[in-house]
Amino acid sequence: MDIKQLIAKMTLEEKAGLCSGSDFWHTKAVERLGIPQVMVSDGPHGLRKQDLEGDHLGINDSIKAVCFPTACATAASFDTDMIREMGEAIGDSCQHEKLAVVLGPAVNIKRSPLCGRNFEYYSEDPYLAGRMATAMIQGVQSRNAGTSIKHFAANSQEHRRMSSSSNADERTLREIYFPAFEMAVKEAQPWTVMCSYNKINGVYASEDPWLLTEVLRNEWGFKGLVVSDWGAVSDRAAGVAAGLDLEMPSSDGVNDRKIVQAVREGKLDEKAVDLACERILTMVYRYLEHAKPETPWDKEAQHAQAAAIAAECMVLLKNNDGMLPLNKEDEIAFIGEFAVKPRIQGGGSSHINCFRTTGALEAAKGLKVTYAQGYSAAEDRATDEMIAEAAAAAKAAKAAVVFAGLPDSYESEGYDRTHMRLPDCQNRLIEAVAEANPNTAVVLHNGSPVEMPWIGKVKAVLEAYLGGQAVGEAEVKVLFGDANPCGHLAETFPLKLEDNPSYLFYLGEGNVTEYREGVFVGYRYYDKKKMDVLFPFGHGLSYTTFEYSGLELSRESMKDTDTLQAAVTVKNTGSRSGKTAVQLYTGAAAADPIRPVRELKGFAKVELAPGESKKVTFTLDKRSFAYWNSQIHDWYVPSGTYIIEAGDSSRHLPLRAEVQLTSTTELPRTYTLDSIYMDLLADPKAAPIVKEFLQRNSESKEERSETAQDAISDEMNLAMLNYMPLRAMFGLGGRPEAEQEVLEMLKRLNQ
Ligand code: BGC
Description:
The chain contains 23 helices and 27 strands. It has a six-stranded mixed sheet, with helices on one face. A five-stranded parallel sheet has the order 1-3-4-6-9. Strands 19-27-26-21-22 form a five-stranded mixed sheet, with no helix packed on it. Helix 4 (80-96) runs antiparallel to helix 12. It is an alpha/beta fold and 751 residues long. Strand 3 (101-103), helix 5 (126-141) and strand 4 form a beta-alpha-beta unit. The protein binds beta-D-glucopyranose. The site of beta-D-glucopyranose has 7 residues, from loops.
């Protein structure tokens, strides 16, 4: 298909029309030229294909589909191979349903536990989010269906999501809010990128040329098309010029006419419209030319896959006295409505019409399990009778498992949570059950962290997140030991909401949200502040034990253009097979510039039989040590010592090694009369010039009077000099010629 030739035949009106949808889910056809339309559908963790009335809030019905675990859960798997396979399954379903693009993955950073959409997002860590998204995109696109990585960018709250401006400095955007998109674009080339609703530093993402063209295309090499989030367009012509190719959904021709008008008035270059059409048609024909609608969609097989994935995602947060796994011979009380009707997904555009859902009680058929409802999730209440009945059931059993979590109304697309608590009725229930039976475990269903006031009273906590339609099967497997839990937290659970770094500024003021915590998001903040947390990033227990040893580096020193291999050995020292997530973090030893203590730069999920050892090797490169330098607008690694740590959580890193890095980039320096001695003396080029000047101009200790020597030592003298600007030397020591000398020295320093 010669797309350029096709575009040459189109009228301006046809081209402008092609740049927006024909309805909620289809691109436009141009019948005169035989250009067909294609359909897209939400995602990200399954299909929300709407055959009839379309909407983007998950209100109207969609076809029966399979709900895989949501991103908050899948990120906890730390298993990119598994995510890729999940993507393949979703890609197959797209082919079967004749969908050109599935709208996901969603990679926005979990800045606050309150974001209503955290369940759809992967992590507080950009590297982990990027690796997960890359795997997902590769999986879907291996089936010749496209993806739409979203929401680009800095869309970390639902509050005022269509009008607020996320104001963050360049370094924060580059280090925290962009890398997941960057990695996915560079490594997986998603067919489409969805721009977000919000503004970034005052400019709508949908009309930001810096974001959509300079960074996304010119720097990262994105080749696909940019689609608006549904209704994100403000100024359509500005959007086309900025690089927003496709507007969704249809604007009923309103914005198409604005494109035509802008071209006619000479305000928009028609070439920009041609380019948008070229990208849209490339996507359309890319899908159509290899479409395989005969691909089967085996929903039962995908249900089983969803169960297997859910089991790999669950995080065993606490397990005192080895309470879990439970013994299948014992009588166990399942308590809480989520054992029957589990909360498996979040509300909004990702909401899937499951063809089947399995709760834990159903999955535990054949085991000695009793049940008490404990609370009503829909009514969000527990009567005294319900709690008493639950406590009695717990007392009568060997152990109790409370299935708790956030009811649907607590977290959803479109609004944020207002607190981090579980429903009060559920907290009361857990306390009562734990009181009735000390062998109490809690299974949590939530898309984002919750406070756990009862944590000291229960023996075990299993975080199931929003685990998809087969979550109950996975829960029973993990609880009774048929599966060994191996998830690790992709986010920190703070002790309380107020500990979160964004707490003071989260919702912003009016339409402005300042990202004032900067790069200190999640563990980057808690670690720097040495704060206690409820459960740290990366944490996850197992029914077996692992030993980490021998962090071996392939070299002791390197230039920032070199790569480094870091090998870690892990041994299963327990008595059953299991998996762990080996995590590798780097950090700079120097205090300047201000950086997090450690940042995740590598991870691997490793499966080991009892007694088995494996060596895992990570490759580290410049980006593994760099920070974004806003002076040169690029990644930069200051020369110095870097620390590499490895272990199985950000707070359990038994292995540590050091490497010396030498920068190959010289930062441009311009000195002025305001430059201070400390900075000049730290610059190997400037230091000799300055030292020579100082020698000529300062008295040696011997020259000073005894009283002066007593009052100020040479060290103190130097320490005070450190912060002195050059201009302070004018006329120093009663030498009028000093001013001229300073000015001459400045000239030499800047040569
Ligand atoms: C959401 C997107 C979604 C789109 C289409 C929007 O409200 O932000 O994530 O893909 O609707 O349903």
